[in-house]
Specification:
Layout (H helix, E strand, L loop, with lengths): L1 H20 L7 H4 L2 H29 L12 H7 L1 H17 L5 H21 L4 H27 L4 H32 L1 E4 L2 E4 L1 H26 L19
Helix pairs in contact: 3-7, 3-8, 3-9, 5-7, 6-7, 6-9, 8-9
């Protein structure tokens, strides 16, 4: 494992050096150093981690038998239906956040939506005694997640020329993949710390899920704090609206 990591570092360094020397590089690395691009990439990292925890924990939690001390013994199909409000909330919130971001600071929108994610995850860790509670709080999380997804693309691509926007999004997506893998490893470790017997099966204890949701809440909260710190005084500055069109001269 250490050898593979070292080889990846060497190959990445060699690729970066080649890109910097090339007159027409595949990825303009100077663009990736812009503060806005770094901030947008950080948001990709945060949202990939939080939604990764949700996708890894909520379906098995709902499907667990009552003998485990939690869960509703839902089938895979029923668990999928329980995730529908989450998906719908992402869609609606993304549309609304896009409209709000036309007038308000996109960083402010990201802070509010990440705060919504963190709040939903904290409440989920405290209130998960029924499937209805889980579904409602999952929808609240979806609202925050959808809003953050909408504005993180704006933050990432707004300062870069159109020709470099694809490269910036590609790098941010790669970072999101790494974040999802890290979140999966952390969540798996938290779930495996405490196990219970449910009939013939061995399942994670409820405390493992609670710790995983609190971990994701901390990630979302840190993302909101870092976004606020990076925005500085411009956080409360509203974006100017479109200029009124002048009537044609006659």
């Amino acid at each position: 494992m250490v050898g593979l990591f070292a080889a990846a570092v060497v190959l990445l360094t060699a690729w970066a050096a080649a890109e910097l020397r090339h007159a027409d590089p595949l990825v303009r690395l100077a663009v990736l150093a812009l503060p806005e691009v770094i901030g947008g990439t950080a948001l990709f990292f945060v949202t990939a981690a939080t939604v990764g925890v949700i996708n890894l924990t909520v379906p098995p939690f709902i499907e667990a038998p009552a003998t485990a001390g939690y869960g509703g013994a839902a089938s895979v199909f029923d668990a999928g239906l329980d995730m529908l409000p989450f998906a719908a909330a992402i869609t609606v919130a993304g549309f609304v956040a896009g409209l709000v971001a036309r007038r308000a600071s996109v960083q402010l929108v990201a802070i509010v939506t990440l705060g919504c994610e963190a709040l939903a995850l904290v409440l989920l860790a405290a209130f998960h005694q029924s499937a209805a509670q889980v579904v409602i709080l999952l929808a609240v999380f979806g609202a925050g997640h959808g809003g953050t997804l909408a504005v993180e693309y704006v933050i990432l691509t707004r300062p870069v020329p159109p020709a470099a926007a694809g490269a910036a999004v590609g790098v941010a997506s790669a970072v999101a993949g790494i974040s999802g893998a890290v979140a999966t490893a952390v969540t798996t470790a938290l779930l495996a710390r405490n196990l219970v017997r449910a009939g013939s099966a061995t399942l994670p204890a409820a405390a493992g899920y609670e710790h995983a949701w609190l971990f994701a809440a901390a990630v979302a909260a840190i993302g909101a704090i870092v976004t606020a710190a990076r925005a500085g005084p411009g956080l409360w500055r509203a974006r100017p609206g479109p200029r009124p069109r002048r009537p044609p001269c006659r």
